[in-house]
Amino acid sequence: MGESHQETQDSSQEREKGSYIQWSPEENKTLINLLLDAVASGLRDSNGTFSKFTVERRIISTLNRMHGCNKTYQHYSNRMKILKTKYLNAAELLLFSSGFGWDSTTKRFTASKEVWDEYLKVKFEVLLYKRYFYEIQVCYK
Question: According to the UniProt entry, which residue ranges have a biased composition of type Basic and acidic residues (predicted)?
Fold first, then answer.
């Protein structure tokens, strides 16, 4: 009896904190295709985004029905942040240098070792620079 109470308490704490919901590659692909369909159908607001109503009624409900999952608007918002970051990182790779390419067969970035080394060196220096200024801002606040 004590164990079942503990299990109930643990699951309620998990709900309060917000449990992590994984997205399968198939769910990601479906989400992106649903978003593309919504854009093609003209469902974006005047500011270029989708309303919460559109996302819940047209995108999430279809995704949940197709994959038998239970995603919410919050899950969608979090996934969009991750996808945006991945997109920006990929765009940066393509814009960084003419040495980067895209192999459509393997769906991977291609570059010589020298190009990768230079990119990672610059990227690392930028990260150090950002961290340095962040630490200065924290010290002076």
Answer: 1-18
Q: DSSP states of the chain as a string?
A: -HHHHHHHHHHHHHHHH-------HHHHHHHHHHHHHHHHTT-S-TTSS--HHHIIIIIIHHHHHHHT----HHHHHHHHHHHHHHHHHHHHHHHH-TT-EEETTTTEEE--HHHHHHHHHHHHHHHHHHHHHHHHHHHH-
- What are the residue ranges in the chain where pLDDT is below 50? 1-16, 133-141
Looking at this protein, which amino acid is placed at residue 134? Y
Q: pLDDT tens across 47-79, in order?
A: 989 999 999 999 999 999 999 999 999 999 999
The angle subtended at Cα 85 by Cα 34 and Cα 32, nearest 5°, is 10
